Amino acid sequence: MEMRLKSNLYMVLMILSPLMEVEAAAMECDLFEGNWVLDESYPLYNESSCSFVEKEFNCVNNGRPDRSYLKFRWQPHGCSLSRFDGPKFLEKLKGKTIMYVGDSLSRNQWISMLCMIHSSLPTANYVVNISAIQDMTTYTFTDFGLKVSYHHSLYLVDIVKQRIGRVLKLDTLTNGKLWLEADYLVFNTWHWWNRRGASQPFDYIEDGSRIYKDMDRVVAFGKAVVTWGRWLDANLLLNKTKVFFQGISPSHYNGTDWGEPKAKSCSGQQVPLLTTTYPGASPPALAVLKKSLQTIKKPVTLLDITNLSLLRIDGHPSAYGLGVVDCSHWCLAGVPDTWNVLLYNLMFQDEEVS
Ligand SMILES: *[C@@H]1O[C@H](CO)[C@@H](O)[C@H](O)[C@H]1NC(C)=O
Ligand SMILES: *[C@@H]1O[C@H](CO)[C@@H](O)[C@H](O)[C@H]1NC(C)=O
Ligand SMILES: *[C@@H]1O[C@H](CO)[C@@H](O)[C@H](O)[C@H]1NC(C)=O
Ligand SMILES: *[C@@H]1O[C@H](CO)[C@@H](O)[C@H](O)[C@H]1NC(C)=O
Ligand SMILES: *[C@@H]1O[C@H](CO)[C@@H](O)[C@H](O)[C@H]1NC(C)=O
Hints:
Blueprint: H1 2-28, E1 34-38, E2 72-76, H2 86-92, E3 97-102, H3 104-120, E4 126-131, E5 136-141, E6 146-152, E7 158-162, E8 165-169, E9 184-187, E10 204-207, E11 210-212, H4 217-235, E12 242-245, H5 284-293, E13 300-302, H6 306-310, H7 335-347
Parallel strand pairs: 3-6, 3-9, 8-10, 9-12, 12-13
Antiparallel strand pairs: 1-2, 4-5, 5-6, 7-8, 10-11
The structure holds 2-acetamido-2-deoxy-beta-D-glucopyranose (5 copies).
Protein backbone atom coordinates (compact mmCIF):
# COMPACT_ATOMS: atom_id res chain seq x y z
CA MET A 1 0.00 0.00 0.00
CA GLU A 2 2.68 2.39 1.08
CA MET A 3 4.74 1.41 -1.92
CA ARG A 4 1.88 2.15 -4.24
CA LEU A 5 1.24 5.54 -2.78
CA LYS A 6 4.86 6.40 -3.09
CA SER A 7 5.03 5.29 -6.66
CA ASN A 8 1.83 7.18 -7.45
CA LEU A 9 3.30 10.28 -5.93
CA TYR A 10 6.41 9.75 -7.99
CA MET A 11 4.23 9.41 -11.07
CA VAL A 12 2.50 12.65 -10.26
CA LEU A 13 5.80 14.40 -9.81
CA MET A 14 7.06 12.94 -13.06
CA ILE A 15 4.04 14.27 -14.84
CA LEU A 16 4.05 17.61 -13.09
CA SER A 17 7.66 18.56 -13.37
CA PRO A 18 7.90 18.80 -17.15
CA LEU A 19 4.74 20.90 -17.08
CA MET A 20 6.23 23.17 -14.47
CA GLU A 21 9.29 23.60 -16.62
CA VAL A 22 7.14 24.60 -19.57
CA GLU A 23 5.35 27.13 -17.42
CA ALA A 24 8.61 28.58 -16.15
CA ALA A 25 9.94 28.76 -19.70
CA ALA A 26 6.80 30.54 -20.85
CA MET A 27 7.17 33.13 -18.12
CA GLU A 28 10.78 33.79 -19.05
CA CYS A 29 10.05 33.82 -22.75
CA ASP A 30 11.42 36.89 -24.51
CA LEU A 31 8.71 37.73 -27.02
CA PHE A 32 11.14 39.83 -29.03
CA GLU A 33 13.66 37.07 -29.66
CA GLY A 34 12.69 34.68 -32.44
CA ASN A 35 12.37 34.47 -36.19
CA TRP A 36 9.85 34.96 -38.97
CA VAL A 37 7.99 31.88 -40.21
CA LEU A 38 5.77 31.37 -43.23
CA ASP A 39 2.12 31.18 -42.16
CA GLU A 40 -0.54 30.76 -44.85
CA SER A 41 -3.20 32.09 -42.47
CA TYR A 42 -1.55 35.52 -42.72
CA PRO A 43 -2.12 38.44 -43.28
CA LEU A 44 -4.47 39.23 -40.39
CA TYR A 45 -6.69 41.27 -42.73
CA ASN A 46 -7.11 42.20 -46.35
CA GLU A 47 -6.30 45.87 -46.86
CA SER A 48 -9.04 46.15 -49.49
CA SER A 49 -11.65 45.59 -46.78
CA CYS A 50 -10.08 48.08 -44.40
CA SER A 51 -10.90 51.65 -45.42
CA PHE A 52 -8.62 53.04 -42.70
CA VAL A 53 -5.48 52.21 -44.68
CA GLU A 54 -4.05 55.40 -46.13
CA LYS A 55 -2.52 55.46 -49.59
CA GLU A 56 0.92 55.82 -48.03
CA PHE A 57 0.73 52.31 -46.53
CA ASN A 58 -1.54 50.58 -49.03
CA CYS A 59 1.16 48.82 -51.02
CA VAL A 60 -1.13 46.32 -52.75
CA ASN A 61 -3.41 49.06 -53.98
CA ASN A 62 -0.40 51.09 -55.10
CA GLY A 63 0.58 48.23 -57.39
CA ARG A 64 3.05 46.18 -55.36
CA PRO A 65 3.07 42.93 -57.38
CA ASP A 66 4.54 40.42 -54.91
CA ARG A 67 2.47 38.97 -52.06
CA SER A 68 4.78 36.71 -50.06
CA TYR A 69 5.76 39.54 -47.67
CA LEU A 70 2.20 39.32 -46.29
CA LYS A 71 2.60 35.71 -45.21
CA PHE A 72 5.04 35.89 -42.34
CA ARG A 73 4.31 35.47 -38.64
CA TRP A 74 6.68 36.32 -35.82
CA GLN A 75 7.62 33.23 -33.81
CA PRO A 76 9.39 33.84 -30.48
CA HIS A 77 11.84 31.09 -29.54
CA GLY A 78 10.54 30.26 -26.10
CA CYS A 79 6.76 30.38 -26.56
CA SER A 80 4.00 31.27 -29.00
CA LEU A 81 2.11 34.54 -29.26
CA SER A 82 -1.65 34.53 -28.78
CA ARG A 83 -3.40 35.33 -32.02
CA PHE A 84 -5.27 38.64 -31.97
CA ASP A 85 -8.86 37.94 -30.93
CA GLY A 86 -10.85 41.05 -31.91
CA PRO A 87 -14.19 40.23 -30.22
CA LYS A 88 -12.38 39.36 -26.98
CA PHE A 89 -10.28 42.51 -27.26
CA LEU A 90 -13.35 44.74 -27.71
CA GLU A 91 -15.14 43.04 -24.83
CA LYS A 92 -12.16 43.42 -22.49
CA LEU A 93 -11.57 47.05 -23.43
CA LYS A 94 -15.15 48.27 -23.09
CA GLY A 95 -15.11 51.96 -22.22
CA LYS A 96 -11.34 52.24 -22.48
CA THR A 97 -9.04 54.43 -24.54
CA ILE A 98 -5.92 53.32 -26.38
CA MET A 99 -3.80 56.19 -27.60
CA TYR A 100 -0.84 56.13 -29.95
CA VAL A 101 1.36 59.21 -29.60
CA GLY A 102 4.20 60.09 -31.92
CA ASP A 103 5.23 60.49 -35.54
CA SER A 104 4.07 58.68 -38.68
CA LEU A 105 5.42 55.36 -37.39
CA SER A 106 2.84 55.68 -34.62
CA ARG A 107 0.23 56.42 -37.29
CA ASN A 108 1.38 53.29 -39.10
CA GLN A 109 0.76 51.19 -35.96
CA TRP A 110 -2.50 52.98 -35.09
CA ILE A 111 -4.02 52.26 -38.52
CA SER A 112 -2.90 48.65 -38.26
CA MET A 113 -4.78 48.36 -34.97
CA LEU A 114 -7.92 49.90 -36.51
CA CYS A 115 -7.77 47.34 -39.33
CA MET A 116 -7.21 44.45 -36.95
CA ILE A 117 -10.23 45.45 -34.88
CA HIS A 118 -12.44 46.23 -37.87
CA SER A 119 -11.62 43.07 -39.80
CA SER A 120 -12.25 40.84 -36.81
CA LEU A 121 -15.69 42.38 -36.24
CA PRO A 122 -16.75 44.23 -39.43
CA THR A 123 -20.22 44.88 -38.05
CA ALA A 124 -18.90 46.94 -35.11
CA ASN A 125 -20.07 50.54 -35.56
CA TYR A 126 -17.64 53.40 -35.26
CA VAL A 127 -17.48 57.18 -35.44
CA VAL A 128 -14.48 59.37 -36.06
CA ASN A 129 -13.54 62.64 -34.41
CA ILE A 130 -10.75 64.64 -36.03
CA SER A 131 -9.42 67.53 -34.00
CA ALA A 132 -7.18 69.71 -36.16
CA ILE A 133 -6.29 72.01 -33.26
CA GLN A 134 -5.07 69.17 -31.09
CA ASP A 135 -3.71 67.20 -34.03
CA MET A 136 -5.55 64.15 -32.82
CA THR A 137 -7.88 61.64 -34.46
CA THR A 138 -10.08 59.26 -32.50
CA TYR A 139 -12.12 56.34 -33.72
CA THR A 140 -14.76 55.25 -31.22
CA PHE A 141 -16.17 51.75 -31.59
CA THR A 142 -19.52 52.89 -30.26
CA ASP A 143 -21.02 49.50 -29.31
CA PHE A 144 -18.11 49.04 -26.91
CA GLY A 145 -17.19 52.64 -26.08
CA LEU A 146 -13.63 51.75 -27.09
CA LYS A 147 -11.59 54.70 -28.33
CA VAL A 148 -8.50 54.22 -30.46
CA SER A 149 -6.67 57.53 -30.86
CA TYR A 150 -3.65 58.93 -32.61
CA HIS A 151 -2.04 62.09 -31.31
CA HIS A 152 0.51 63.46 -33.73
CA SER A 153 3.60 64.61 -31.82
CA LEU A 154 6.93 64.51 -33.61
CA TYR A 155 9.27 64.97 -30.66
CA LEU A 156 7.02 64.51 -27.57
CA VAL A 157 8.88 67.48 -26.04
CA ASP A 158 8.03 71.07 -27.00
CA ILE A 159 8.82 73.19 -30.02
CA VAL A 160 8.25 76.87 -29.19
CA LYS A 161 8.32 79.90 -31.48
CA GLN A 162 10.61 82.49 -29.91
CA ARG A 163 12.16 85.69 -31.18
CA ILE A 164 15.25 83.86 -32.44
CA GLY A 165 13.16 81.24 -34.26
CA ARG A 166 11.66 77.82 -33.59
CA VAL A 167 13.27 76.20 -30.56
CA LEU A 168 13.15 72.48 -29.79
CA LYS A 169 13.18 72.31 -25.99
CA LEU A 170 14.66 69.13 -24.62
CA ASP A 171 13.54 69.90 -21.06
CA THR A 172 9.89 70.87 -21.35
CA LEU A 173 6.76 68.94 -22.20
CA THR A 174 3.48 70.82 -22.03
CA ASN A 175 1.45 68.81 -24.52
CA GLY A 176 0.64 65.87 -22.27
CA LYS A 177 -2.80 66.80 -20.97
CA LEU A 178 -4.53 64.88 -23.76
CA TRP A 179 -2.66 61.73 -22.80
CA LEU A 180 -4.20 61.64 -19.34
CA GLU A 181 -7.50 60.42 -20.82
CA ALA A 182 -5.96 57.17 -22.04
CA ASP A 183 -5.89 53.79 -20.33
CA TYR A 184 -3.20 52.47 -22.67
CA LEU A 185 -0.56 54.75 -24.14
CA VAL A 186 1.88 53.76 -26.87
CA PHE A 187 4.56 56.40 -27.47
CA ASN A 188 7.18 56.76 -30.14
CA THR A 189 9.62 59.37 -31.37
CA TRP A 190 12.88 59.03 -33.23
CA HIS A 191 12.67 59.40 -36.99
CA TRP A 192 12.38 63.19 -36.95
CA TRP A 193 15.42 63.63 -34.72
CA ASN A 194 17.59 63.00 -37.77
CA ARG A 195 15.83 65.53 -39.99
CA ARG A 196 17.99 68.32 -41.32
CA GLY A 197 17.57 71.05 -43.87
CA ALA A 198 14.21 72.27 -45.12
CA SER A 199 12.14 69.57 -43.44
CA GLN A 200 13.67 70.16 -40.00
CA PRO A 201 10.87 71.92 -38.09
CA PHE A 202 13.11 73.82 -35.64
CA ASP A 203 16.00 76.29 -35.84
CA TYR A 204 17.62 75.80 -32.43
CA ILE A 205 17.83 73.20 -29.69
CA GLU A 206 17.54 74.26 -26.05
CA ASP A 207 19.22 72.00 -23.52
CA GLY A 208 18.98 73.28 -19.97
CA SER A 209 19.88 76.96 -19.97
CA ARG A 210 21.84 76.77 -23.23
CA ILE A 211 20.65 77.20 -26.78
CA TYR A 212 22.51 75.43 -29.57
CA LYS A 213 22.33 75.75 -33.34
CA ASP A 214 22.74 71.98 -33.42
CA MET A 215 23.94 69.08 -31.32
CA ASP A 216 24.31 65.29 -31.53
CA ARG A 217 20.80 64.17 -32.41
CA VAL A 218 20.98 60.80 -30.67
CA VAL A 219 22.08 62.52 -27.45
CA ALA A 220 19.26 65.08 -27.84
CA PHE A 221 16.74 62.29 -28.37
CA GLY A 222 17.94 60.54 -25.19
CA LYS A 223 17.48 63.75 -23.18
CA ALA A 224 13.95 64.20 -24.53
CA VAL A 225 13.03 60.66 -23.49
CA VAL A 226 14.26 61.46 -19.97
CA THR A 227 12.06 64.58 -19.96
CA TRP A 228 9.12 62.52 -21.15
CA GLY A 229 9.80 60.03 -18.34
CA ARG A 230 9.80 62.85 -15.77
CA TRP A 231 6.40 63.86 -17.12
CA LEU A 232 5.12 60.30 -16.69
CA ASP A 233 6.43 60.12 -13.14
CA ALA A 234 4.79 63.42 -12.24
CA ASN A 235 1.46 63.00 -13.98
CA LEU A 236 0.33 59.45 -14.49
CA LEU A 237 -1.96 57.51 -12.21
CA LEU A 238 -0.53 54.03 -12.19
CA ASN A 239 -3.80 52.42 -11.32
CA LYS A 240 -5.35 53.82 -14.49
CA THR A 241 -2.73 53.85 -17.22
CA LYS A 242 -0.41 51.34 -18.83
CA VAL A 243 2.45 52.84 -20.78
CA PHE A 244 4.36 51.38 -23.70
CA PHE A 245 7.16 52.77 -25.80
CA GLN A 246 7.05 51.56 -29.40
CA GLY A 247 10.84 51.32 -29.67
CA ILE A 248 12.97 52.22 -32.66
CA SER A 249 11.48 51.27 -36.00
CA PRO A 250 14.40 50.62 -38.36
CA SER A 251 14.89 51.76 -41.97
CA HIS A 252 16.59 49.84 -44.79
CA TYR A 253 18.53 52.07 -47.17
CA ASN A 254 21.94 50.40 -47.11
CA GLY A 255 22.23 46.82 -48.37
CA THR A 256 25.68 46.43 -46.82
CA ASP A 257 23.82 46.00 -43.53
CA TRP A 258 22.06 42.84 -44.72
CA GLY A 259 24.77 41.43 -46.98
CA GLU A 260 23.79 42.97 -50.33
CA PRO A 261 26.28 45.82 -50.72
CA LYS A 262 24.86 46.76 -54.13
CA ALA A 263 21.37 47.44 -52.74
CA LYS A 264 20.81 51.17 -52.20
CA SER A 265 17.37 50.63 -50.68
CA CYS A 266 14.78 48.00 -49.79
CA SER A 267 13.40 48.03 -53.36
CA GLY A 268 12.73 44.58 -54.76
CA GLN A 269 13.03 42.72 -51.45
CA GLN A 270 10.30 40.08 -51.34
CA VAL A 271 11.08 37.97 -48.27
CA PRO A 272 12.38 38.66 -44.77
CA LEU A 273 15.72 37.52 -43.45
CA LEU A 274 14.81 34.22 -41.83
CA THR A 275 17.66 34.35 -39.34
CA THR A 276 17.38 35.31 -35.68
CA THR A 277 19.91 38.11 -35.75
CA TYR A 278 20.37 40.92 -38.23
CA PRO A 279 23.86 41.05 -39.72
CA GLY A 280 24.06 44.86 -39.54
CA ALA A 281 24.45 47.09 -36.53
CA SER A 282 21.68 47.96 -34.11
CA PRO A 283 20.48 51.60 -34.48
CA PRO A 284 22.44 53.74 -31.96
CA ALA A 285 19.17 55.35 -30.80
CA LEU A 286 18.04 52.03 -29.33
CA ALA A 287 20.82 51.83 -26.74
CA VAL A 288 20.21 55.47 -25.80
CA LEU A 289 16.47 54.83 -25.52
CA LYS A 290 17.00 51.86 -23.21
CA LYS A 291 19.29 53.92 -21.00
CA SER A 292 16.81 56.81 -20.82
CA LEU A 293 13.93 54.47 -20.00
CA GLN A 294 15.89 53.30 -16.95
CA THR A 295 15.58 56.76 -15.41
CA ILE A 296 11.80 56.42 -15.19
CA LYS A 297 10.23 55.26 -11.93
CA LYS A 298 6.77 54.37 -13.23
CA PRO A 299 6.60 51.12 -15.18
CA VAL A 300 7.03 51.56 -18.93
CA THR A 301 7.05 48.53 -21.20
CA LEU A 302 9.41 48.75 -24.16
CA LEU A 303 7.84 47.22 -27.23
CA ASP A 304 11.28 46.15 -28.38
CA ILE A 305 10.42 45.79 -32.05
CA THR A 306 13.77 46.86 -33.51
CA ASN A 307 15.40 43.47 -34.08
CA LEU A 308 12.34 41.74 -35.47
CA SER A 309 11.67 44.68 -37.79
CA LEU A 310 15.30 44.85 -38.89
CA LEU A 311 14.79 41.37 -40.39
CA ARG A 312 11.88 42.69 -42.52
CA ILE A 313 13.82 44.15 -45.43
CA ASP A 314 10.74 43.18 -47.48
CA GLY A 315 8.15 45.00 -45.37
CA HIS A 316 8.49 48.61 -46.55
CA PRO A 317 6.42 50.32 -49.25
CA SER A 318 9.55 51.08 -51.33
CA ALA A 319 8.10 52.51 -54.59
CA TYR A 320 4.55 51.43 -53.67
CA GLY A 321 3.86 54.14 -51.11
CA LEU A 322 3.65 57.84 -51.93
CA GLY A 323 5.96 57.53 -54.95
CA VAL A 324 9.37 58.25 -53.47
CA VAL A 325 11.26 55.14 -52.35
CA ASP A 326 10.09 54.64 -48.77
CA CYS A 327 12.10 52.15 -46.72
CA SER A 328 11.11 53.70 -43.38
CA HIS A 329 7.37 53.11 -43.10
CA TRP A 330 5.67 49.73 -43.44
CA CYS A 331 3.05 48.29 -45.76
CA LEU A 332 -0.35 47.45 -44.25
CA ALA A 333 -1.18 44.65 -43.85
CA GLY A 334 2.33 44.04 -42.61
CA VAL A 335 4.94 44.43 -39.92
CA PRO A 336 3.03 46.86 -37.61
CA ASP A 337 0.32 44.16 -37.27
CA THR A 338 2.98 42.12 -35.47
CA TRP A 339 3.82 45.09 -33.24
CA ASN A 340 0.14 45.16 -32.27
CA VAL A 341 0.00 41.40 -31.71
CA LEU A 342 2.93 41.87 -29.32
CA LEU A 343 1.13 44.79 -27.69
CA TYR A 344 -1.99 42.63 -27.37
CA ASN A 345 0.06 39.89 -25.70
CA LEU A 346 1.59 42.38 -23.26
CA MET A 347 -1.48 44.50 -22.47
CA PHE A 348 -3.09 41.92 -20.27
CA GLN A 349 0.02 40.09 -19.05
CA ASP A 350 -0.40 40.97 -15.38
CA GLU A 351 -4.10 40.08 -15.31
CA GLU A 352 -5.71 36.71 -14.77
CA VAL A 353 -5.86 34.77 -18.02
CA SER A 354 -9.50 34.07 -18.72
C1 LIG B 1 18.81 42.56 -30.67
O1 LIG B 1 20.04 42.33 -31.34
C2 LIG B 1 21.19 42.77 -30.63
C3 LIG B 1 22.38 42.60 -31.54
O2 LIG B 1 22.38 41.33 -32.14
C4 LIG B 1 21.29 42.01 -29.31
O3 LIG B 1 22.38 42.49 -28.56
C5 LIG B 1 20.00 42.20 -28.50
O4 LIG B 1 20.03 41.41 -27.34
C6 LIG B 1 18.79 41.82 -29.35
N1 LIG B 1 17.57 42.16 -28.62
C7 LIG B 1 16.54 41.33 -28.54
C8 LIG B 1 15.36 41.83 -27.79
O5 LIG B 1 16.54 40.23 -29.07
C1 LIG C 1 -8.15 41.06 -50.95
O1 LIG C 1 -9.46 40.85 -51.38
C2 LIG C 1 -9.63 41.13 -52.78
C3 LIG C 1 -11.12 41.07 -53.08
O2 LIG C 1 -11.69 39.93 -52.50
C4 LIG C 1 -8.81 40.13 -53.59
O3 LIG C 1 -8.96 40.36 -54.96
C5 LIG C 1 -7.34 40.31 -53.20
O4 LIG C 1 -6.54 39.37 -53.86
C6 LIG C 1 -7.16 40.17 -51.71
N1 LIG C 1 -5.80 40.59 -51.37
C7 LIG C 1 -4.94 39.78 -50.77
C8 LIG C 1 -3.61 40.37 -50.51
O5 LIG C 1 -5.20 38.64 -50.45
C1 LIG D 1 -13.42 65.50 -30.41
O1 LIG D 1 -12.10 65.40 -29.88
C2 LIG D 1 -11.64 66.57 -29.22
C3 LIG D 1 -10.21 66.33 -28.84
O2 LIG D 1 -10.06 65.19 -28.05
C4 LIG D 1 -12.53 66.86 -28.03
O3 LIG D 1 -12.10 68.05 -27.39
C5 LIG D 1 -13.97 67.00 -28.50
O4 LIG D 1 -14.82 67.17 -27.39
C6 LIG D 1 -14.40 65.77 -29.29
N1 LIG D 1 -15.71 65.97 -29.87
C7 LIG D 1 -16.68 65.07 -29.80
C8 LIG D 1 -17.95 65.41 -30.47
O5 LIG D 1 -16.53 64.02 -29.18
C1 LIG E 1 -5.94 55.82 -8.29
O1 LIG E 1 -5.05 56.35 -7.34
C2 LIG E 1 -5.32 57.70 -6.96
C3 LIG E 1 -4.20 58.22 -6.09
O2 LIG E 1 -3.69 57.23 -5.25
C4 LIG E 1 -6.71 57.75 -6.30
O3 LIG E 1 -7.02 59.09 -5.93
C5 LIG E 1 -7.76 57.22 -7.29
O4 LIG E 1 -9.03 57.16 -6.66
C6 LIG E 1 -7.37 55.83 -7.77
N1 LIG E 1 -8.28 55.46 -8.86
C7 LIG E 1 -8.79 54.24 -8.99
C8 LIG E 1 -9.66 54.04 -10.19
O5 LIG E 1 -8.57 53.35 -8.20
C1 LIG F 1 26.56 51.52 -45.92
O1 LIG F 1 27.08 50.94 -44.73
C2 LIG F 1 28.47 50.68 -44.80
C3 LIG F 1 28.86 49.92 -43.54
O2 LIG F 1 28.39 50.55 -42.40
C4 LIG F 1 29.23 51.98 -44.96
O3 LIG F 1 30.61 51.71 -45.07
C5 LIG F 1 28.74 52.68 -46.23
O4 LIG F 1 29.35 53.93 -46.34
C6 LIG F 1 27.23 52.84 -46.21
N1 LIG F 1 26.79 53.33 -47.49
C7 LIG F 1 26.07 54.43 -47.62
C8 LIG F 1 25.66 54.79 -49.01
O5 LIG F 1 25.74 55.12 -46.66
